[in-house]
Amino acid sequence: MTRTFNLISIFFFVLALTSANGSSSGSEASHGKEEIGVYELKKGNVTMKVTNWGATIMSLVLPDKKGKLDDVVLGYDSAKDYKNDSTYFGSVVGRVANRIANAQFTLNGTKYKLVPNEGKNMLHGGPKGFSDVAWKVSRYEKDGRAPHIVFKYLSKDGEEGFPGNLRITVSYTLLGDDKLSISMKAKALDKVTPANLAQHTYWNLGGHNSGDILSEEIQILGSHITPTDSLLIPTGQISPVKGTPYDFLQPHQIGSQIKSLPKGFDINYVLDRAEGSKSLQKAAVVHDKRSGRVMELYTNQPGVQFYTGSMLKDVKGKGGCVYKAHAALCLETQKFPDSVNHPNFPSEIVNPGQTYNHIMLFKFSVKP
């Protein structure tokens, strides 16, 4: 009962914070009009750095079981390095995260042709998605009871082929001494449009420079996945994980499950939650035994993409560290990939005047 109460309290606290900032003064950012900066949030032993380029998480420093502090987020040394990033390190992606088949969809009888950026398909909003624009900082409090920063961006009608003007607000908030809340909102101003944002941080609980994450244990509370073809486009099926390498209903070491998947994990899980529920529910738990760090993820979304960084190849990161395949994992809560082309998937369509609301809550702890 205590945990439920705390989650409900956090849910409404974040809603109140982002709603208050929805009417903040100042116009939303558009391409090239905002100065790029780095902003720090600090609460207890937790320190976080973000940049308004892509509303990106650059670092998150946490103590391990011995009190040693490490940065558990992959990334680069400076904000300008993210302008040439092709990995989506730490960024917010959209207008529609993940993949859209053939970079097109039909909505209310109108076919929309998007801008492809992964062969014939669209990935994470196209070549100039939300990860590649400067956001406006509408509110910033470095420390105090709930250190937070709020970013705003106006995605204009026709951007990357999407219809309608869409006003987006993203906030990062440190709560207590062990929680990070992420809120992503998008309001359709004038036309019906799809909206499905994702936060694309690469996590390594041993430290960003500690090697691969194959020894980390993960539990994913999703008993089904949405299988894909060779181009990672969903087939439209929803298949059980039981008896497959994708079964993480009980905690398993990532390396023990990855052996039969040469390319690693890059799949959407259908989370086990009540149909239509909008409350925060646990999606996944990650445990790094060497450091003792534990990360629990809660969300109000129906799916989570589990990606083990198989496409990382000699990426030069912070402090000269070179990131290789499986150097980190991503847990991107979301609607399902290519939902716009699969009527049986949860809808990501937002009507004029409606607001898309996406919340993630990370809870960090240590085990001896």
What does the largest sheet look like? 9 strands, antiparallel
End-to-end CA span: 26 Å
Low-confidence stretches: 1-5, 20-27
Total number of distinct structural domains: 1
Shape designation:
globular
Count the beta strands: 28
Strand content: 35-45%
Brief descriptors of the model:
7% helix, isomerase, 368 residues, carbohydrate metabolism, aldose 1-epimerase activity, five-stranded antiparallel sheet, disordered N terminus, 28 strands, Beta-galactosidase, Chain A, domain 5, single chain, Gal_mutarotase_sf_dom, GH-type_carb-bd
Could you give the topology of this structure?
Elements: H1 2-21, E1 38-43, E2 46-51, E3 56-63, E4 69-71, E5 92-93, E6 99-100, E7 104-107, E8 110-113, E9 122-123, E10 136-141, E11 148-155, E12 166-175, E13 179-188, E14 193-194, E15 198-199, E16 217-220, E17 224-225, E18 239-240, E19 252-253, H2 254-258, E20 266-270, E21 281-287, E22 293-299, E23 303-307, E24 315-316, E25 322-323, E26 330-334, E27 349-350, E28 355-366
Antiparallel strand pairs: 1-2, 2-3, 3-4, 5-15, 6-9, 7-8, 10-11, 11-12, 12-13, 13-28, 14-27, 16-19, 16-21, 17-18, 17-20, 20-23, 21-22, 22-28, 23-26, 24-25
